[in-house]
Amino acid sequence: LTPDFLNQAGRVLWGDGQTRISFDISQEIYTPADTQVLNPPPNDRPYAGVLLGNFGLVTDTTNARSTIAVSLGVVGPWALAEQVQNGFHDIIGQDHANGWHFQIHNQFAFEAVSARTWRIPLTNFRGLDVDALPELDAGLGDLRIYAEAGGVVRIGQGLDSDFGVARVRPGMSGGDAFKPTRPLVWYVFAGGDGRAVAYDITLNGNPFQNSRSVSLTPLIGEVEFGVALMAFGTRLTYTQVLQTKEFQHQKSGLHQFGSFALSVRF
């Protein structure tokens, strides 16, 4: 149950609604394109690891979800990214990434994030619901400073069960909380967002230490699409993302990545 003082905080911030709290631990691992060289090119993304504990306060109304979250953790060798990545490579029989001794240095990390997603029903066509999920996000801290706006359109059944799929931020995320409104809920979705980035330690490097760094691209665009399925108290989602260049001299063109997320109600 959510403590009364947090319920009250949710009402003060966003009005009446259902308030939830969330806790999770996340690890982010970043490497340059060529992980086999001992000394990575200085104009490629630096090696970086981020380990965070995240606390969130989420308030839902009928057609909106508001989130405020605080993340505390570390960047650098303390984040154990090298051990996790190369340990996993040992399990699957792949070569180690060899340039981790050039990673971003140790630093305590902090980020506060505020996000709001609206759920706007559009139409119903032959038993299929259609809605839109516009979203605004902002993050501030010594990890990242950014603001983001975007939205997705969904087609399926039981769209009032959640506010979109979960993604690691920065990026549009409906969060992990869901409440199925029918035995089988499903939808497909597509959308996009634009992000203005003032600072990202995984690209800019440590602010008060001499570390590897690149010049970030201040404006980033994303297109995403995927599918979600809910049944038996679980939600499984897949998201495919196409992202423009995050830093200058990035040679790979559009960056593509996929994300699976599994959530369980209890």
What does this structure look like?
With 266 residues, the chain is mainly beta. Helices cover 10% and strands 50% of the residues. The protein contains 3 helices and 11 strands; from the N terminus they run H-E-E-E-H-E-E-E-E-E-H-E-E-E. The chain has helices at 4-14, 81-92, 201-204, and strands at 18-30, 48-60, 64-75, 107-118, 120-125, 128-141, 144-157, 185-200, 219-231, 234-243, 255-264. The longest helix has 12 residues, at 81-92. The model has no long low-confidence stretch (mean pLDDT 90).
Features:
266 residues, mainly beta, 11-stranded antiparallel sheet, globular
Task: Spell out the blueprint of helices and strands.
Elements: H1 4-14, E1 18-30, E2 48-60, E3 64-75, H2 81-92, E4 107-118, E5 120-125, E6 128-141, E7 144-157, E8 185-200, H3 201-204, E9 219-231, E10 234-243, E11 255-264
Antiparallel strand pairs: 1-2, 2-3, 3-4, 4-6, 5-6, 6-7, 7-8, 8-9, 9-10, 10-11
Low-confidence parts, pLDDT < 50 over ≥5 residues?
A: none
Category from helices, strands and their pairing: mainly beta
How much β-strand is present in the residues?
A: over 45%
Helix content: 10-25%
Kindly state the number of beta strands.
11
Principal-axis shape: globular
- N-C termini distance: 12 Å
Largest beta sheet, briefly?
Answer: 11 strands, antiparallel
> Which radius of gyration do the C-alpha atoms yield?
20 Å
Put simply, the count of helices is 3
Mean pLDDT: 90
Topology as a string of helices (H) and strands (E): HEEEHEEEEEHEEE
